[in-house]
Amino acid sequence: MFHGPQQVDGDEDTQIGVLCRDVLGDFESARIAHLTTGNGVAVELFEFDDLEAFEEPDPKQPGYFHFCVIDPNIEELAAKIDERGGEHHTDVWELFPGQEYRMTYCKDPFGNLVEIYTHSHERIYSNQGDY
């Protein structure tokens, strides 16, 4: 079922609102769309209403923002990134309360954001409805 992009207000206290502030910093509002291809490649699109620059990373700038890998043991992978000169950047998040889908963000040694999901995008976001 197609739900279209999800609207997220930067000051809302919902699960997705708090998660987005942890990752993106302060923002007024955003629309987020998750797309996947038949072979499992996923693309996330972010559209922000407020275009003022904010702290690094800056997802409001055109181009590459982050990449995502899938690993069922995200804590272990985040610890390896830390040990090798990177940084565990955000908390580990349960994407939908009461479900097994979790994610976190790290920075590699060069400062690039690495998103780690426990499951594929199509499995996580299928039939979830609104965040």
Automatic annotation (TrEMBL):
Name this protein carries in UniProt: VOC domain-containing protein
Domain VOC, residue spans: 1-119
Record organism: Halogranum amylolyticum
InterPro entries: Glyas_Bleomycin-R_OHBP_Dase, Glyas_Fos-R_dOase_dom, VOC_core
Residue ranges crossing the lipid bilayer per the database entry: none
Highest taxon, organism lineage: Archaea
Extent of the signal sequence: none
